[in-house]
Amino acid sequence: MNAHGSFIWYELVTGDSAKAKAFYDSVCGWNIDAQPAPGGMDYRMINAADGQAGGVMQLNADMIAGGARPTWLGYLGVDDVDASVAAVVAAGGQVHLPAFDIPDVGRLAMVTDPQGVPFYVMRGASPHTSTAYQRMGLGHVAWNELLAPDDAAALAFYERLFAITKVGGMPMGEMGEYSFIANGDSKGEAVGAIMRVQPGTAPGWRFYIRVPDITDAIARVEAGGGKVVWGPEQVPGGEWVISIVDPEGVACGFVSPGKS
Q1: CATH number of 6-124
Q2: HSE (CB half, 13 Å, CA atoms) of 100?
Q3: Could you count the other beta carbons within 10 Å of the beta carbon of residue 75?
Q4: Is the preceding peptide bond at 232 cis, omega within 30 degrees of 0?
Q5: Cβ 122 vs Cβ 9: under 8 Å
Q6: Topology match between the domains 6-124 and 141-256
Q7: Which of 9, 50, 147, 180 could form a disulfide with 197 if both were Cys (CB 3.0 to 4.6 A apart)?
Q8: Whole-number Å distance between alpha carbons of 78 and 26
């Protein structure tokens, strides 16, 4: 079982699962289920080479009428979903989807932090440790980056409620500090960062998926109808990173150990 405050799942919310499959299968090396699992909701698993890396949820008419839009969402594993939801509300956040149970899956709820950034909290039914996040795993989210209007307030919120702690930082000049974060599973190793959102960029969690080669990823992003909005940039440690929007305009990123 993952520690409280660990990233345990990632979900792409999309208006077109087939197009999402074509794009991300090509860029990430995934094999997203071609058909949804049995049941009333169109939900498909993201299959990396070594197992599941997340899920894809197809928006239906009711969801769209309620304001749902294509996006990437992260799930934080928690010890007690209802207690976490109450703590989020007490801290100034909101509940978008009240806590509910999925048989054999777990209990979960969708909330926003006090600055309006959405995420899920979940207590999984399985005793096994989730491997959806892997710092060095190809085809897995390898970096979790929060762009917040008030980065100091965001750090305080996630530390107090989810034991996500700052473990160093990198000065970014007028952009402020890029604060590295760790959680209970990472044993002090950074799993992502929090920084102040810049003008013209929407606040939210951005998830960076590991691919073998950033040049190849750029070509596949562009061939698939996506757009590179930043990079390629080599970051401290030698990895290469790009930030993109997919064909539906959903923001995410890719990270690789090399660049051809």
Answers
A1: 3.10.180.10
A2: 7
A3: 24
A4: yes
A5: yes
A6: yes
A7: 147
A8: 33
For the chain, the domains span 6-124, 141-256
Q: How far is CA 189 from CA 18, 53, 134, 249, in A?
A: 36, 20, 12, 31
Provide the token pair at 251. Answer: 């923001």
Tokens of 63: 């969801």
Long-range contacts of 234-239 (CB under 8 A, 24+ apart): 234/259, 236/170
pLDDT in tens, the chain (260 residues): 899 999 999 999 999 999 999 999 999 999 999 999 887 789 999 999 999 999 999 999 888 998 889 999 999 999 999 999 999 999 999 999 999 999 999 999 999 999 999 999 999 998 889 999 999 999 999 999 999 999 999 999 999 999 999 999 999 888 889 999 999 888 889 999 999 999 888 999 999 999 999 999 999 999 999 999 999 999 988 999 999 999 999 999 999 997 77
User: Class for domain 141-256, per CATH?
Assistant: alpha beta
